[in-house]
Amino acid sequence: MSDLDALDKAVKKHKRIASEWAMQLHDLAEERLPAGYEELPELAKATYHACMEWQEALKALQDAKRC
Fold first, then answer.
1. Rounded to the nearest 5 degrees, what angle is found at the Cα of 54, between the Cα atoms of 53 and 60?
2. C-alpha distances in angstroms, 9 versus 6, 34, 37, 43?
3. For position 1, what pLDDT does the model report?
């Protein structure tokens, strides 16, 4: 497996994880708010961090493709 393939795989993995957290956040908003408001900070933080990890992986892939 080449470095680009590994980076592409990492991007896809992080995108999937970010999407899963986003779905949990969506489910909270759709199904459990306002009663489940105490879950909001933890889910929002986890979603934010998962999106940041995806963005970092994407940037690494884009940088590698430029070289």
1. 90
2. 5, 37, 35, 25
3. 79
Asked if 54 contacts 18 with a C-beta cutoff of 8 angstroms, the reply is yes
Which residue reads 């899963």 in tokens?
A: 20
Q: Over the stretch 6-27, which tens digit does the pLDDT of each residue have? A: 999 999 999 999 999 999 999 9
Sequence-ordered alpha helix ranges (H) in 1-67: 3-27, 40-66
Q: How far apart are CA 41 and CA 7, in angstroms?
A: 30
- Contact between 53 and 12 (Cβ < 8 Å): no
What CA–CA distance (Å, rounded) separates 3 from 21?
A: 27
**CA distance linking residue 62 with residue 11, whole number of Å:** 10
Q: Whole-model pTM?
A: 0.91
Angle formed at CA 51 by CA 45 and CA 55, multiple of 5 degrees: 145
Q: What is the per-residue pLDDT for 10?
A: 98
